[in-house]
Recover the amino acids of this structure.
């Protein structure tokens, strides 16, 4: 019995071992087949990229140009055509100042007066002397007429006639001198009134009543109203292109355009700035009016000859040695493209676009935006982007 039991255990153990060995071999065979199948499918996937893995990119077609136009701005200042410090022609005591700062005045309007008491007294004295001289002249003429009659009758000498004639001439000269002196006093009396030389606005009142001023000392500063001028310094090469009467738009500090016409260009170059002064007349219709001393800018086009093309600034990434990188698209079969890059030099930036030069050829597709999402060698599908 014991021997039979031992034999059955050995037989069962042998069967179990055989079963396990068979299962292991089958598993290895299945694994081998499965792995081979995966390797074959992987090769096919590598040859045919999945469309869902292709990145769409916005593109722009390169259009090569022989140059670009940039805008140069030059700063100037608005000025009244005339700004005058008014003063009296003669010294004296100021008795009245009739206007204050900001007052609007008309040409010929009296603005201030000097004390004229001494001048009026001088005029009265001269008038009295003139009256006396004229009376003496009347008497001398009558005397001269009588002497002429006596000389003709032989009752007096020629010497007496000469004396009366000389007296008449002297009195004539005296009356003429007194007339001239009275005219001079009249001028001084008129000059004792400070008058506006043109229509304008009082910019500053410099003197009050009671002040004794010297001849020519400033009393009021008057700014001419009406047309204003703007004087802008421009380089000579730009000035040579300007034509008198041409219309321009000057831009003030608030960004408002002031219509203006070119009046003249100075013939001399200023040494410090190497510019010439262009004078513009700002139109009367400008409202609100420009202010004296206000800064304005003049924009002029400047053509730069340089082969290159325009591209959006967002299409550029910084590279080494001061160059920039732009990504172009190379055909990769069908409607797919592969990313490559070119180095370009940035020549000019204007707003959100840049003018660059490099070896990129005309008609090449470049990535217009989203450059952070692409890398050289990557497959992409282009999407046209309108020129910017």
């Amino acid at each position: 019995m014991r021997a039979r039991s031992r034999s059955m255990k050995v037989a069962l153990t042998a069967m179990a071992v055989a079963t396990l060995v068979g299962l292991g071999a089958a598993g290895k065979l299945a694994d081998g087949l499965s792995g081979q199948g995966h390797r074959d499918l992987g090769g096919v996937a590598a040859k045919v990229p999945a469309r869902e893995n292709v990145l769409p990119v916005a593109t722009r077609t390169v259009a090569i140009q022989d140059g670009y136009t940039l805008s140069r701005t030059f700063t100037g200042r608005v000025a009244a055509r005339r700004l005058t410090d008014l003063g009296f022609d003669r010294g004296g005591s100021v008795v009245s100042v009739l206007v204050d700062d900001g007052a609007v005045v008309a040409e010929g309007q009296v603005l201030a007066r000097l004390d004229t008491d001494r001048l009026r007294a001088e005029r009265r004295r001269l008038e009295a002397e003139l009256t006396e001289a004229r009376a003496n002249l009347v008497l001398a003429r009558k005397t001269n007429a009588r002497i002429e009659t006596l000389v003709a009758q032989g009752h007096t000498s020629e010497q007496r006639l000469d004396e009366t004639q000389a007296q008449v001439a002297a009195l004539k000269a005296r009356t003429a001198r007194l007339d001239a002196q009275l005219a001079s006093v009249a001028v001084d009396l008129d000059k004792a009134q400070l008058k506006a030389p043109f229509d304008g606005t009082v910019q500053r009142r410099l003197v009050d009543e009671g002040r004794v001023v010297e001849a020519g000392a400033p009393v009021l500063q008057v700014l001419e109203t009406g047309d204003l001028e703007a004087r802008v310094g421009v380089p000579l090469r730009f000035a040579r292109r300007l034509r008198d009467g041409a219309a321009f738009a000057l831009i003030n500090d608030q960004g408002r355009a002031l219509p203006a016409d070119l009046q003249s260009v100075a013939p001399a170059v200023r040494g410090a700035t190497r510019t010439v002064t262009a004078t513009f007349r700002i139109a009367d219709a400008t409202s609100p009016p420009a202010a004296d001393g206000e800064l304005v800018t003049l924009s002029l086009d400047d053509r730069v000859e340089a082969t290159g093309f325009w591209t959006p600034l967002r299409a550029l990434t910084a590279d080494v040695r001061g160059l920039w990188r732009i990504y172009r698209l190379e055909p990769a079969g069908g409607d797919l493209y592969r990313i490559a890059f070119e180095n370009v030099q940035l020549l000019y930036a204007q707003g959100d676009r840049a003018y660059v030069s490099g070896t990129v050829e005309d008609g090449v597709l470049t990535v217009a935006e989203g450059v952070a999402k692409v890398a050289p060698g990557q497959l992409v599908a282009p999407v046209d982007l309108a020129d910017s």
Observations:
- The two ends are 102 Å apart (CA to CA).
